[in-house]
Design a protein that fits this description.
This protein is an alpha/beta fold. Helices cover 39% and strands 11% of the residues. Strands 3-2-1-4-5-6-7-8 form an eight-stranded mixed sheet, with helices on both faces. The structure holds NADP nicotinamide-adenine-dinucleotide phosphate.
């Protein structure tokens, strides 16, 4: 059975406390001079938490920001007329294609694509397409979206200077998760809080394995698309909003005292996206401001290949509009 590093939400949050006090190797390199003028930045899950803080930060740095999310917020809140809200519900496959098509129809080209949206549910929930919601939102929707944006040239590969970038927002809690379990893969079954917490970190391992395999497949002949992964560290966000009341209050208490504000947590992500230090790089991983290796399983090429094949096989069955950009 697939298992993530944590099964207890309080223990998982307390691991974040350690991160809060961790030394930040590259923090001094974060600079207000790294601008995003003339760049278009897409952020999923941009209506709240880290995603919202990133949208504000990129807008301040001069970018056109495409905020994608399932709940609308007033555009004027950003203080910028270059910020747009787009509807995207990653638990509904048709909205992913609709979103990608609408960007293509407007001839929008993305320079920086930040795949930030994720959910932490207290248990299983089945989507209309028949998958577990956390599996779809936290993993598979990112495959559908990246393949569709690449197929429609909303995300450009090669020929641009500087090259386009995808940043996967992950979690260091993926370290130590089990190998991907293909008996469970894409299959819906019922579970509760412990397995939910375990799946959250396990799906981040699955996501990181996809990011690594995508980079491997696209960047066969030099770096044509920068695909990096980051864990922002502990963020005092809304991520536990669906937890049962008592657990939610406990976690919110921990968040308030020792987790970082979303705007502070956004800093290493902005650094990774804009700093010359990471220009033209791929398959790098930052844990906040600390360069690090992901779990060793993420880099195993047989694992990446198997995940790719199984994901594409599943999509053939559940998504009639599925596009494959790289085979
Ligand atoms: N919080 C932490 O301590 C922590 C630590 C490490 C990594 N991270 C990662 O950081 C990222 C941002 O999380 P956060 O902490 O900022 O939590 P958050 O405030 O809950 O943000 C998550 C975002 O994802 C969106 N989302 C969830 N389900 C969606 C769906 N079906 N379709 C579209 N959007 C959906 C949420 O939208 P709604 O508001 O509509 O639900 C929200 O905008 C996540 O990838 C998370 O795994 C967080």
């Amino acid at each position: 059975m697939a298992e993530g590093r944590f099964t207890n939400p309080v223990v998982a949050s307390l691991a974040g406390v350690k991160d809060f006090f961790a030394k930040q190797e590259l923090a001094s390199r974060f600079s207000d001079n790294d601008r995003a003028d003339d760049m278009t930045v897409l952020i999923t899950g941009a209506n709240s938490g880290l995603g919202f803080a990133l949208a504000v930060e990129f807008a301040k740095r001069g970018a056109r920001v495409i905020m994608a999310g399932r709940s609308k917020i007033p555009e004027k809140l950003s203080g910028s007329d270059t910020v747009e809200m787009h509807y995207l519900d990653l638990s509904k496959i048709d909205t992913i294609h609709h979103f990608a098509q609408s960007l293509a129809d407007q001839a929008i080209q993305i320079d920086i694509c930040i795949l930030n949206a994720a959910t932490a549910l207290p248990g299983s929930r089945q989507t209309a397409s028949g998958q577990d919601e956390m599996f779809l939102v936290n993993y598979l929707s990112n495959v559908i979206l990246t393949q569709d944006l690449l197929s429609k040239s909303v995300l450009r590969v090669k020929g641009t200077s500087p090259i386009s970038k995808i940043i996967f927002i992950s979690s260091d809690s993926h370290q130590g998760a089990t190998y991907i379990d293909y008996d469970e893969f894409g299959t819906y079954f019922e579970y509760g809080v412990s397995k939910g917490i375990s799946n959250y970190s396990y799906f981040k391992l699955v996501l990181n394995t996809y990011a690594t395999e995508l980079s491997r497949r696209i960047n066969t002949n030099g770096i044509q698309l920068s695909i990096n992964v980051i864990c922002p560290g502990p963020v005092a966000s809304n991520i536990v909003k669906e937890a049962p009341w008592l657990l939610r209050m406990t976690l919110k208490g921990i968040f308030r005292i020792v987790f970082k504000s979303p705007s502070k947590a956004a800093r290493p992500v902005v650094y990774l996206a804009l700093s010359p230090d990471y220009e033209g790089t791929t398959n790098e991983y930052l844990h906040m401001f600390n360069p690090k290796k992901m779990d060793p399983k993420v880099y195993e090429s047989e694992e990446g290949e198997k995940l790719w094949e199984r994901s594409m096989d599943l999509l053939k069955v559940i998504d009639e509009d599925h596009k494959v950009f790289v085979s």
